[in-house]
Write a structure and sequence with these properties.
Structural class of chain A: alpha+beta
Distance between the termini of chain C: 40 Å
CATH topology of chain C: Rossmann fold
Strand order of the largest sheet of chain C: 6-7-8-3-9-10
Distance between the termini of chain A: 46 Å
Number of helices of chain A: 13
CATH class of chain C: Alpha Beta
Shape of chain C: globular
Radius of gyration of chain C: 19 Å
Strand content of chain C: 15-25%
Order of helices and strands of chain A: HHHHHEHHHHEEEHHHH
Strand content of chain A: 5-15%
Number of strands of chain C: 10
Largest sheet of chain A: 4 strands, antiparallel
Helix content of chain A: 40-55%
Chains: A alpha+beta, B alpha/beta, C alpha/beta
Helix content of chain C: 40-55%
Shape of chain A: globular
Oligomer: heterotrimer
Number of strands of chain A: 4
Chain lengths: ~375, ~300, ~260
C-alpha cells in the first residue's frame, strides 16, 4: 500500500516551495550572496539573462540569477514573465552602433581598419587554467593600462570601408518600412520577414544558435562566414515623447554587435556583392552575437535557394530557438498523464490479447 | 477574502493580464467561435507558469473571468492534482474569484486531458489546455503545409493515417487526441482527452474553448455544434470500456484511472473525475472497495 | 459534320487558348492553343528546354500562365477557365477529376505511407468511408497494374522503380478521373521495364477510355501512346497533327530531326 498520490497537492506544493527556498540559500554559515555582487561579479550571466529575457535591467537580471540559483534559462523565464506585464510607452529610435563608445572592436577581415583593432576585455588568448588565487579570495586585480591616446570616436564601422567600392550589400529597410514586427505581441508567421527573424534570434537560446551556427560551418548549409567586425560598448538610446516631438536621450545600453560577411549575394539584377549576417545582444554576449549572425546569414539563403540544411529552414530554426518555450514543453512531461497512459495501457493489453489469441489459433491449426 | 490573497493586485492588473491583451484574446475567441474548429493565431503572452503547463488555458480564463464567476480547474479529471491546484490558486489570488470543485456550480471550468462526466449546461464555458493544436502536426511538421491543408480542406493525409492504422492494428489505434471533424469543415485536435470523452464534444450545450499558449492558437466549438470523430463505416468510432466499475463509487459509466496497489499485480480502478466520484459516494453509491483511503491529502496547516 | 451525335462528340473536354508563360524575359511557352476530346490521347514532344513541361504545368493548374486560358469541362461548373475558379474549387476539381503521373514516383507518392494507402487515398478524398471496400478496390487495382497484392502494406521504397511507377498509376486512376496528365511516365526506367509499363499504360488508357496529355522526349513512347502530337521547340508549337502523320511525314525541319532520331533507336 505504498501508493502516494500526486493528488492532494495543496500542502505538497507549499512545502516544496519552502524546501526550494531553503536549498537556494544553502549553508546559512556562508554569507548570503547579494544582488549587487551578482550584478558586478557574474556580469556575463546577467548579460545573457537580459539578452534572452529581452529586458535591459541589470539589477532585475541579477535578482533573477540569484532567485534561480544560477539556472540561466530559469532566470530568463523570470525576466520574460516580468517583462510581459510592463506597460509600453512606445518604441525608441533605432540605436546607432556607429556612434558606440567602443570598448572592444575587432575585425578578422582586415589586418588594420580605421580605428584599429581594440582587444578589450576578452577571454580570448587567456590560458584556460583555473586561477587558484581567486579561490583563495585573491588580491584585487592589477588595473589595466590606459591608452595614451583616447579611442577614436565615433569609430568607423567596417561597412564604411566597403562603401567606396560598394562591395557590401546595404541593409535597406523594407519597401513598406512600416512598424517593425513585434514578436512579443504577434504570433510567428511564415514566410518570416527579416525583422521577425532577427527578433526571434535575438531572444533565441545561445546554445541552440551556437550549435546551428556550428552545423553550418561543418557543411550542413555552409555559408562561408567571415567575421567582418565585432564591437562591444555603450550606445545612447533616444526616445521621442509625444509631448515634445523631438528625440531626447533616455539612457545607455551596452551592446555586442557582430557582422558576418560571405560571398553569394550575386543575382541577375544586381552586381555581385558580399552578403551579411547580423547579430546583436544586450551586454557582452559575444558567442551568441556571432552565432546569431551566422544563422541570420544562413536563413537569408533560404530566401533564394531551396532549403537544404536545418540552419536554412525558417520554420525549424524559429520555432525551436526560444528556450522558454522549449524548456516549458519538454518539462511539461513531468505533469501527470495518467488519463493518456490508461488509454495506452488499454490499447496495448488489447493488442496483446489479440496477438496471443492469433498465435494460439495458428498453433491449433498446425496441430 | 483576506488582505493577503489580494496582495498581487497592487502589482498586477485584475486577472493578471492587462486589459489590452484581454481584448485581443476576446477578439480571437469571437473569431474562433465564428469559424468553429479553425485555429486562430493570437499574440500569446508569457505567463508566470511554463509553456506546456496550461498557458493557453490560463490566458483564455484570464480574458473571460470576472468577480462573479465561479471557477473550477481540473487536471486528468481531478480537482486535487498539483497543477490544477496551482492554477486554481493563481486565479483565486489574481482574480479574487470563488472557486469550486462542483461541476454543476462552476461558470468556467479549465481542464487538462478530460471533460467532466456530468453533462455541461448552457452558460458554462469549458476551457481546454492544449499542448499541440494542430491535428496534422504528427503527420506533417510544417505549419505552412498544414495551414494550406486546412484552407483547402485537404485531409487526405489524416485519412491515410487512419487507413494504415486499421491495416496495421485491425482498428483505429488512436486513443487520446482522437481527430474530430467540426461542423463538417475543419479537422480539429480535441486536445489530449481520451477518445472516451469525444462524444461529449458533440452537440454540447456549453461553449468549448481551446487555448494553446506556446503554439499561440485559439480555437472553439460553439454550443450545439456537430463534432464527428473520424472513422470508417466498417470500423466505427468506439470509446474505451472497462470490465470493472469504479472501486469507490461503483460507477460503470465513467472513465477510470488504474491505481496500482502493490508490485504483485494488485490494482483497483477509480473514477478519474474526482468530483463525479465524490458526488456519487455522497449520494450513497458504493463500489467494492468503498471507504478505501485512496490517497491521504495532507491538509494545509492552518494559517 | 452537322449530325447530332458528332456534335456531341465534338464537345471539348479541355480547351486551351493563347497560352503564354514568361519567366521574366525568358519565354516558357507561347500562344499555345488546342482542344482535347474525351478519350483522346495527346502527346507533347520536344527536347528538354522546348517548353513542354512548362506547358504541361500551365495546363494542369500547377503554374499560372502569363496570359491565355485553360478551360475544362468540370462536373460542378461546366466548361470553366480553371484559373478563374477560386483555389479551393480548383484544387478540389483537380483531386476529383484529374490524375497526374510524375516522372519521379517520389513526387507523386507519399513515401512514408504504404503502397496500399497511397492507392486508396483518392477514394478517401472523394468521401470513401468504408475501409473494407476501399481495401478491396486497392487490391483490384494492384492486380490491374500487375503488382503482388500481398505487398499491399509495404512502403514505396521497398518496391523497385518500375513498381513504384505502377503504384503511382493505380493511385491516379482508382478514382475514375476524366483526364490524366503524364510527365515522362517511363522516363527514369530501364528499357525493358519501360516497355512493359508502356504496354500496361496503353491498355489501361484504352480500356478506361481516358483522355491523356502525355509529355515525352521519346518518339517511341509518343507513337505507342498518342493519337495526336504537338511538337514543341523554343516554347512554340511548331507542328501538330495525327501521330502517324507527324511521325511518318513530318513537315517542320525540327520535327524531321526529332523523327530521324527515333529511327536510330
Amino acid at each position: 500500500m505504498a501508493y502516494v498520490a500526486v493528488k492532494g497537492g495543496e500542502a505538497a506544493i507549499s512545502n516544496a516551495h519552502r524546501w526550494l527556498a531553503e536549498d537556494r540559500r544553502g549553508d546559512q554559515a556562508v554569507p548570503e550572496i547579494q544582488v549587487d555582487q551578482v550584478r558586478e561579479q557574474l556580469s556575463l550571466a546577467v548579460d545573457r539573462v537580459m539578452s534572452e529575457g529581452s529586458c535591459y535591467d541589470r539589477d532585475l537580471a541579477a535578482l533573477a540569477v540569484k532567485q534561480s540559483r544560477g539556472d540561466l534559462p530559469e532566470a530568463i523565464f523570470l525576466m520574460r514573465a516580468y517583462r510581459t506585464t510592463l506597460p509600453r510607452f512606445g518604441a525608441s529610435l533605432p540605436v546607432e552602433t556607429a556612434n558606440m563608445a567602443v570598448r572592444r572592436r575587432i575585425s578578422a577581415a582586415f589586418k588594420d581598419i580605421p580605428g584599429g583593432q581594440v582587444l578589450g576585455p576578452t577571454f580570448d588568448y587567456t590560458h584556460r587554467l583555473l586561477d587558484f588565487t581567486l579561490a583563495a579570495n585573491g588580491e584585487a586585480p592589477a588595473a589595466a593600462l590606459e591608452a595614451e591616446e583616447p579611442q577614436a570616436y565615433p569609430m568607423a564601422t567596417v561597412a564604411s570601408v566597403f562603401d567606396q567600392e560598394n562591395l557590401l550589400e546595404t541593409d535597406a529597410p523594407s519597401a513598406e518600412a512600416s512598424e517593425p514586427f513585434d514578436l512579443t505581441r504577434e504570433p510567428m508567421s511564415f514566410p518570416a520577414g527579416r525583422d521577425q527573424r532577427l527578433q526571434a534570434l535575438a531572444r533565441g537560446d545561445e546554445g541552440f544558435l551556437l550549435s546551428l551556427a556550428y552545423s553550418s560551418q561543418r557543411g550542413w548549409g555552409n555559408t562561408h562566414p567571415l567575421c567582418a567586425e565585432i564591437r562591444l560598448g555603450e550606445v545612447a538610446v533616444e526616445f521621442t515623447p509625444d509631448e515634445l516631438g523631438f528625440p531626447i536621450e533616455i539612457g545607455d545600453l551596452t551592446l555586442t554587435e557582430c557582422h558576418m560577411i560571405s560571398t553569394g549575394a550575386a543575382g541577375l539584377e544586381r552586381p555581385p556583392q558580399f552578403a551579411r549576417g547580423y547579430g546583436v545582444t544586450f551586454g557582452h554576449c559575444e558567442r551568441k552575437a556571432m552565432s546569431m549572425a551566422i544563422v541570420d546569414r544562413a536563413l537569408r539563403d533560404a530566401e533564394e535557394i531551396e532549403t537544404a540544411a536545418p540552419v536554412q529552414d525558417q520554420e525549424f530554426v524559429l520555432y525551436h530557438s526560444d528556450n522558454v518555450e522549449a524548456s516549458g514543453f519538454v518539462q511539461h512531461l513531468k505533469l501527470p498523464h495518467y488519463v493518456d497512459f490508461q488509454a495506452d495501457l488499454q490499447l496495448i493489453r488489447r493488442l496483446r490479447r489479440e496477438w496471443f489469441a492469433r498465435e494460439a489459433a495458428l498453433k491449433e491449426a498446425a496441430e | 477574502m483576506n488582505a493577503g490573497s489580494n496582495a498581487p493586485e497592487r502589482y498586477y492588473n485584475y486577472a493578471y493580464l492587462d486589459e489590452q491583451t484581454k481584448r485581443m484574446i476576446r477578439r480571437a475567441i469571437l473569431k474562433a467561435l465564428a469559424i468553429p474548429g479553425y485555429q486562430v493565431p493570437f499574440g500569446s503572452r508569457e505567463m508566470p507558469v511554463p509553456y506546456g503547463w496550461g498557458t493557453g488555458g490560463i490566458q483564455l480564463t484570464a480574458a473571460l473571468i470576472g468577480p462573479d464567476d465561479v471557477y473550477k480547474c481540473i487536471d486528468q479529471g481531478a480537482d486535487d492534482t498539483t497543477n490544477a491546484v496551482s492554477i486554481r490558486r493563481f486565479f483565486a489570488q489574481v482574480a479574487d474569484v470563488a472557486v469550486t470543485e462542483d461541476t454543476g456550480e462552476a461558470t468556467i471550468i479549465q481542464t487538462r486531458h478530460r471533460i467532466p462526466e456530468k453533462p455541461l449546461k448552457a452558460g458554462q464555458v469549458l476551457v481546454f489546455q492544449v499542448p499541440q493544436p494542430e491535428p496534422l502536426r504528427g503527420l506533417e511538421p510544417r505549419e505552412t503545409e498544414t495551414r494550406a491543408m486546412h484552407a483547402y480542406e485537404e485531409y487526405g493525409l489524416q485519412y491515410v493515417s487512419l487507413y494504415e492504422s486499421v491495416a496495421t492494428y485491425g482498428r483505429i489505434a488512436s486513443t487520446v487526441g482522437y481527430p474530430t471533424m467540426i461542423d463538417e469543415r475543419y479537422l480539429m485536435n480535441p486536445s489530449p482527452i481520451p477518445k472516451f470523452d469525444n462524444p461529449k464534444l458533440d452537440d454540447n450545450d456549453a461553449i468549448l474553448l481551446f487555448g494553446a499558449g506556446r503554439e499561440k492558437r485559439i480555437y472553439a466549438v460553439p454550443p450545439n455544434t456537430r463534432v464527428r470523430s473520424l472513422d470508417f463505416e466498417d470500423h466505427p468510432f468506439e470509446t474505451q470500456t472497462w470490465d470493472d466499475a469504479c472501486a469507490l463509487c461503483g460507477a460503470g459509466d465513467s472513465y477510470l484511472d488504474e491505481v496500482v496497489l502493490d508490485d504483485a499485480g494488485q490494482r483497483m480502478f477509480v473514477c478519474s473525475d474526482s468530483h463525479y466520484c465524490a458526488e456519487r459516494r455522497a449520494a450513497g453509491h458504493a463500489g467494492p472497495m468503498a471507504g478505501h483511503q485512496l490517497a491521504t491529502p495532507e491538509t494545509e496547516p492552518a494559517q | 459534320m452537322n449530325a447530332m451525335p458528332q456534335a456531341i462528340q465534338a464537345a471539348p473536354l479541355l480547351r486551351v487558348s493563347g497560352l503564354t508563360k514568361w519567366y521574366g524575359q525568358i519565354i516558357g511557352c507561347r500562344d499555345v492553343a488546342f482542344e482535347l476530346r474525351p478519350g483522346e490521347v495527346l502527346g507533347i514532344v520536344g527536347e528538354s528546354g522546348s517548353g513542354k513541361t512548362t506547358l504541361l504545368n500551365c495546363i494542369s493548374g500547377r503554374l499560372p500562365p502569363s496570359s491565355g486560358s485553360v478551360e475544362f469541362d468540370t462536373a460542378r461548373f461546366g466548361l470553366a477557365d480553371i484559373y478563374s475558379l477560386n483555389e479551393p474549387d480548383r484544387r478540389r476539381m483537380q483531386r476529383e477529376e484529374w490524375g497526374f503521373v510524375h516522372q519521379n514516383p517520389r513526387d507523386g507518392l507519399r513515401m512514408r505511407a504504404s503502397g496500399g494507402a497511397n492507392v486508396a487515398e483518392p477514394l478517401m478524398n472523394l468521401g470513401g468511408r468504408h475501409y473494407g471496400k476501399m481495401r478491396q478496390a486497392t487490391i483490384d487495382w494492384l492486380e490491374r497494374v500487375e503488382l503482388d497484392t500481398r505487398r499491399i502494406d509495404h512502403k514505396p521504397r521497398q518496391f523497385s522503380g518500375g513498381m513504384q511507377q505502377r503504384i503511382q498509376v493505380a493511385r491516379n486512376l482508382i478514382h475514375g478521373p476524366r483526364l490524366v496528365f503524364m510527365d515522362e511516365p517511363t522516363g527514369g526506367l530501364d528499357v525493358s521495364v519501360q516497355a512493359r509499363l508502356l504496354d500496361l499504360l496503353r491498355e489501361l488508357v484504352r480500356d478506361l477510355d481516358l483522355a491523356v496529355i502525355i509529355v515525352t522526349h521519346d518518339m517511341a513512347v509518343a507513337r505507342l501512346m498518342a493519337d495526336r502530337l504537338m511538337v514543341m521547340k523554343g516554347g512554340l508549337v511548331v507542328e501538330t497533327g495525327l501521330t502517324d502523320q507527324v511521325l511518318d511525314d513530318p513537315q517542320h525541319p525540327y520535327s524531321q530531326l526529332l523523327v530521324s532520331s527515333v529511327l536510330q533507336i
